[in-house]
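Cross-posted from the bioinformatics board.
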Amino acid sequence: MALTSTPRFELPAELQGEMRRAKRLEWITILYLLSVAVLMYLVMGSSQAMKTAWAEDLLSLIPPTGFLIATRVRYREPNEQYPYGYYRSINVAYFTSALALFTMGAILLIDGTIKLVTAEHPTIGGVSFFGRTIWLGWLMLPVLVWATIPAWMLGRAKLKPAEKLHDKPLFADAQMNKADWMTGAAAAAGVLGISVGWWWADAVAAMLISLDILFDGCKHVRAVVGDLMDRAPKSVDHKRFLDLPDRLAAALEELPWVRHAEVRLREHGHVVFGEAYIVPLERIEHAAAIARELDWRLHDICVQLVGPHRS
Amino acid sequence: MLKVLWWPLIVCLVGGCDLPRDPEGTTNRVRNGALRVGVMHDPPWVEFGSGGTEFSGVEVRLVRQLADELGAEIEWHPAGETRLMKALQNFELDLVIGGLTDSSVWKKHVALTRPYRETQSTSSGQGILPRRKVGRVMAAPPGENAWLLTLERFLQSKHR
């Protein structure tokens, strides 16, 4: 199997530190999101906006969990069952979270629309707080601040390792965390709307949040499906195609014996696989012509390049 | 980004005195006005007198005290649970009493106060589950959050 198994990939030394940082940040993200989930559950009452924000928070647990699981799997030794290696496992994790986002976004959008259309007035009563009864809505606001600001900070911290490692799932996760402030602001606007008597503010805020989740889901599903279908390599933010195939072709064409080279590449997580097709210079044709003219009987001679193994 | 978070806090501090508000203005209407109460027969919480117009019971006493505090005049509306709850949902009543518990099936359709008292359940347990303690509540129209808060504060002060 030594010839057909892809060689084991090791991150260059300078990137291993980035990988450790990324893993640490994802562990912190998971613990933080669990704390947010618990707090939100305690204060969400029957506010649709809070319920939607809570759902988005739970969904945000999938990317970091997927990342940490895939990171254990992706650098395993390729073997007979997986001759191309396990590098695509990270894309599988990415696909799961993207699909979950899309589905939940759709469900929550429908839920919020129903609440708006049936004119359901959200009831938010009081809660005992150190002996006094205060409105539950006033507790929702600080919880939303806790759900928003650390998420934004974590998102920003994760962007740098994601770019250096060219890790698309990590990058997508970081972007989603950074954009969490919009969810918090929408939910807070919903709660404040309810406080002044605009019952519809809750449903509208919930619909806006779920639209955001839905669009995120769409965007990420399209991105990862392309990756899984061996699309040419794209930048980590999926905005442009990389010039890696062109650069490789140009480097090969600089060799004196190469007339023309073409390259196709695909991404397996961090690792890039591909083929380079080379048209060698006239020396080969020259050798073939000399072979044919040596004797009137030599007719169809094929001159073949071989690698060092056969010598 | 932080700018977006500051103004809601300012709104809270500045307008916080009378927040939250009722979308249908229940509290303002009830204060020094009429308090429309739906009643169901369930001793000892609500007991119908012989004529059908006199009411007594634990919750009736509480409601009378509440009306005194708010300067409101009580209008009693006796009927069955379904009709009363539907009326509450349509904002035709301000309050419904009659031995409601916090496990009532109406909790998704109307606003239930937090329990003002814990009692032993009168029905037997479900299957192998033992009889539970239930909380006694009152029902208010959905989404009338200021009114609900007024009720809850009143009830908590009565049952310390």
